[in-house]
Every structure is written in structure tokens, then in C-alpha cells.
Amino acid sequence: MAAWKAQKVSGEPRVAVYFDFDNIVISRFDQRFGRSAFARDVRGSGRSEPLSEEALKRLDEARVSVNAVLDYAATFGTLAVCRAYADWSHPVNAAYRDDLTARAADLVQMFPLSVRRKNGADIRLAVDAMEDLFLLDDVTHVVIVAGDSDFVPLVQKVRRLGRYVVGIGVAGGTSRVLAGACDEYADYDALLTDDEAEEDERIEALAPPAAAGTAVGRNPFGGDPLGGLQREAAAPDAEVGPEVPRRRPGPLLRKALVLLETKTDEEWQDASAVKNQMLRMDPSFQEREHGFPTFSAFVKAYPGVAELDESGHNRIRRRPGSH
């Protein structure tokens, strides 16, 4: 009840996100390498025998960006619930574990009870979503990351309960019926920026010393394919956790502006809305920790990314010409 009252007072929308993770990973792989490519190249491997070098390379090329999906979901409000359903013991899914736990996602284990594993995640996801909505009446938006038409009854029921439903799926792997049943649908590819990694490096190269950060790159499908599970089993009493690099402030500012500009179709954004979006994407962001006394000073430190409205309206826009 307290959460409901807080939402009513603040007016802040609250979002529940549900990933049919196997579906989105397989759909993305098949989109890149052809129909049934995942079944041919990956499925059945990675348990009794290591994945081939070619399969690892393709998995890396077709890697799903968890941040891209959750950053978009955060444009609708605070992420109150985030659940991802898959067989997390499989190395392909386990490679995403750190990405998801870094965004406070609950990893729901789906044990392979049969060869086909048909509808296992679908049913569990639907049951959990309905339970969440009846227990959490402050949830205003439901984001379903999937492509299976089996989710249509769930979408219809959620809409009848007065929630706004957003679907996210991979082109070619999403049922048109599911997309049409949602209040809003987003193509996964539209959430990506082709040159995002290159642009992030350019921004950080120009960043002031106080805001410069480092991040260690890694191949999530190489080295330890179980994402640290083997290390934890070897040292059960040790306090082991993923080392998650903090998101770099310059690219975080740019991403927030891009998302808000796309959502509102407005060039100028209120400064408080921009900072709020940044906090939704990375709750650990604080401009003072990067050496800036105010958020305005932080924005001014990235003239190649954004500019402030000097007329006193406390607005920010993406620098014309920046990606």
C-alpha cells in the first residue's frame, strides 16, 4: 500500500519487464545467420562438448544488448520488476548472467524437462506476470521481451487490467499477432546504434580528467563459458560476485538524450528529465563523484555531446551533428 501511495504522490510510472530470454537470443542469432541457424550451430553443444570457435564467433556477433532493451524500458518509468527466464546452466545463456544481474534482473531458472522444452518459459512468465500485477497495483507498464504468439492472451489480460503493454522483439522472429496486440511495439534493431561503441570511445577520449573512466573489455563467450559458476562452486565460502564496470558518464548522457528525443520527438529536454533517465539506466550515477558540483556543470563538460539552453529554461539538447 505504501508503494501505491508513493506512486500516486510522485506520479512516477513503474515498469515490469519480462524476458523470454531463450526466444530473444535464438531469434537474434537466426536473424543474423539464417533460419534455424541456432538449432544447427549451437543447440545441443556447450554441455558435453565445448562450442566450436565458429559458433563462439557467431554468438558474439549476434549478442543481445541487455542495456539497449532495459534502457528503452526505462523511458517508460522506474524499473520495479525485471525477470529473465531461461536455462541459465547452458553456457550460451550463462554468458549473459553478469549483464542481467548488473541491472538487478531476477534470473528465473527453467529446467529442460523435455527435449523440446515447449512452452515452459511462456507459462511460467505468464503466471509470474499476473501474480505481480495483482500484488503490485502500482505497476503502470508491462514490457514483454519475446516474439511468441503464445503471449497474446497474456497481453490481452494485462491490457484489460488497465496496464500499458510494450512489446520488444526481433524482426523476423516476432509474431505479427503479438506485435498488434500490444499498446506499443519496438523492434530490437531500432534500439541499437550501429556506431554506438565507436561513439562511446570518441566521447571518453574527449572527456575531462575528472570524468574519465575505464572499462575492461571481454569476450563473454570465451574463457569461462559458465560466467563464473565454476569459480563459485570451487570456493563456496568465498564472497564471489561479478565485477561490473560502471557505465561511463559521457556515453550515459548521450544515450539518455537519444532515448528521450526519440520518445518525445522534441529537440530540447528538461534537465531533470535527462538526469532522471540517466539514474533509471544507472542508479549509481552522481555528478559529484565525477568531480562536478552540479548537473549543469557536468553537462557543460561534454560540449561535444550536449548543450544547455542558456535562456533560463533549464533544458538540454543533444549537440547538433552528434550521433
From TrEMBL:
Alphabetized Gene3D superfamilies for the sequence: 5'-nuclease, LOTUS domain-like
Record PROSITE patterns: HTH_OST (PS51644)
Boundaries of every HTH OST-type domain copy: 245-322
InterPro entries according to UniProt: LOTUS-like (IPR041966), NYN (IPR021139), OST-HTH/LOTUS_dom (IPR025605)
GO molecular function, one term: RNA nuclease activity
Matches recorded under PANTHER family: HTH OST-TYPE DOMAIN-CONTAINING PROTEIN, SLR1870 PROTEIN
Name listed for the protein in its UniProt record: NYN domain-containing protein
Species of provenance: Leucobacter weissii
